[in-house]
């Protein structure tokens, strides 16, 4: 059983579910934890995935309560489905809850996107702590890159339980491209936004992390406003349904060359990334996607667990500083875009993961 609850987890686990379906002797189940109910629905529909377990998000005052509630609810789903193995992705409350619930039932845990480390327990919080905790109880670690594998080895994870397979986000991009080519109605929400930017360089931004607080938002908005003073730039900012979006609407609304929208579906976002000249984001997955596509990305964080993107020359850490953001944007817009880079994988991570799971955890006697 694969367990997902947020938009990025769903996107990154679709290739694993599809690949597991292609493994004979494997019966794959999907549990949606309900952590983010609405985001990601369209990708499940397009992927033809109907979760066997569609859980209600637990009532929670804070992320600790959310984790506790998810452990209980996901544990009940595991008891109903009785899987031979559980697959979790990345570093969310759903990922850790799934791993803990399975561990307490002595069901082996496979961790997709294992080994990402910023080296700072407070940033990103709580994700750095969550992914380290999962690493201590998982039986198989699917590391996207050599740096991730090395981080796991440094923490004493047994080498024969680590498999360097690439990040499934690249598989998802290839899948999305194919689906959009076959059905141009997918991701139509991108059209009015890319049309608004017609004739100007489209800068695509997303800001959703909890640690991007009010002062940081003001500084980022100041940097973005300075960037769109020039006539040849247009900013598109799909807003994640988080409280800080209201602040961003107040700071950035009503500007001629800024289009604010609600979060767009995955296919629309892929189309916007392809149309973008520059991406500005505090996201993790978008650093990987920008690198795979060859789009420069300015990272609105103080640290990253994607050093490969920085070394590839696609990502630049600008923190929450208006001047750093403005200067980096001006430089990036003056330089040619970096070429596509496969440092995060070749688009076949899902197949490698499914084959290894089938052999090692699901039908060990195969
Ligand atoms: C600490 C950290 O970095 N943790 C990350 C966090 O994920 P994230 O930071 O990548 O989260 P987001 O930025 O929300 O999602 C991004 C995805 O959403 C798509 N997108 C975006 C805007 C939109 O309007 N419509 C969309 O469809 C976009 O193409 C992309 O695929 O948790 C994941 C799960 O554990 C981890 O894997 C991952 O390390």
Please outline what is shown here.
This is UDP-N-acetylglucosamine 2-epimerase (non-hydrolyzing). This protein is 46% helix and 14% strand.
Task: Present the secondary structure layout.
Layout: E1 2-4, H1 7-21, E2 30-32, H2 41-46, E3 53-54, H3 63-81, E4 86-89, H4 93-104, E5 109-112, H5 127-137, E6 140-143, H6 146-154, E7 162-164, H7 168-182, H8 190-196, E8 201-206, H9 214-227, E9 233-239, H10 244-252, E10 258-262, H11 266-275, E11 278-281, H12 285-293, E12 297-299, H13 307-311, E13 315-317, H14 322-334, H15 349-362
Parallel strand pairs: 1-2, 1-4, 2-3, 4-5, 5-6, 6-7, 8-9, 8-11, 9-10, 11-12, 12-13
Helix pairs in contact: 1-7, 1-15, 3-4, 4-5, 8-11, 9-10, 9-14
Description:
The structure is a single chain. The chain is of the alpha/beta class. The protein has 2 domains: 2-167 and 346-362, 3-Layer(aba) Sandwich (Rossmann fold); 188-334, Glycogen Phosphorylase B (Rossmann fold). The chain is built from 15 helices and 13 strands. The longest helix is centred in the N-terminal third of the chain and has 19 residues, at 63-81. The chain binds the ligand CC(=O)N[C@@H]1[C@@H](OP(=O)(O)OP(=O)(O)OC[C@H]2O[C@@H](n3ccc(=O)[nH]c3=O)[C@H](O)[C@@H]2O)O[C@H](CO)[C@@H](O)[C@@H]1O. The site of the ligand CC(=O)N[C@@H]1[C@@H](OP(=O)(O)OP(=O)(O)OC[C@H]2O[C@@H](n3ccc(=O)[nH]c3=O)[C@H](O)[C@@H]2O)O[C@H](CO)[C@@H](O)[C@@H]1O has 27 residues, from helix 1, helix 11 and helix 12.
């Amino acid at each position: 059983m694969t367990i997902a609850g947020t938009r990025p987890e769903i996107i990154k686990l679709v290739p694993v579910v599809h690949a597991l379906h292609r493994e004979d002797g494997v019966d794959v189940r999907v549990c949606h934890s309900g952590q983010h109910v609405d985001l990601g629905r369209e990708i499940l529909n397009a992927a033809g995935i109907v979760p066997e377990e569609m859980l209600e998000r637990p009532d929670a005052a804070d992320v600790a309560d959310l984790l506790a509630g998810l452990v209980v609810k996901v544990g009940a789903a595991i008891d109903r489905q009785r899987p031979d193995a559980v697959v979790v992705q990345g570093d969310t409350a759903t990922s850790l809850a799934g791993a803990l619930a399975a561990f307490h039932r002595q069901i082996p845990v496979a961790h997709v996107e294992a080994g990402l480390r910023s080296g700072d327990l407070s940033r990103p919080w709580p994700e750095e702590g969550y992914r380290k905790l999962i690493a201590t109880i998982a039986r198989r670690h699917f590391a996207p890159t050599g740096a991730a594998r090395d981080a796991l080895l440094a923490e004493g994870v047994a080498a024969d339980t680590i498999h360097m397979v690439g990040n499934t986000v690249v598989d998802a991009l290839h899948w999305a491209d194919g689906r959009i080519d076959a059905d141009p109605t997918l991701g139509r929400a991108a059209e009015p936004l890319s049309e608004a930017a017609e004739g100007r360089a489209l800068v695509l931004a997303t800001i959703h992390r909890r640690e991007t607080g009010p002062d940081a938002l003001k500084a980022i908005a100041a940097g973005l406003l300075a960037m769109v003073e020039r006539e040849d730039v247009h900013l598109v900012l799909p807003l994640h349904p988080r409280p800080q979006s209201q602040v961003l609407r107040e700071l950035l609304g009503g500007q001629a060359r800024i289009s604010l929208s609600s979060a767009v579906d995955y296919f629309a976002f892929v189309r916007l990334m392809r149309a973008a000249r520059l991406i500005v984001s505090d996201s993790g997955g978008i650093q990987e996607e920008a690198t795979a596509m060859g789009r420069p990305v300015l990272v609105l964080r103080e640290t990253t667990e994607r050093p490969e993107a920085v070394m590839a020359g696609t990502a630049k850490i600008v923190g929450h500083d208006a001047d750093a953001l403005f200067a980096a944007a001006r430089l990036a817009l003056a330089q040619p875009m970096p070429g596509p880079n496969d440092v995060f994988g070749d688009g076949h991570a899902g197949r490698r993961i499914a084959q290894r799971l089938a052999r090692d955890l699901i039908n060990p006697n195969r």
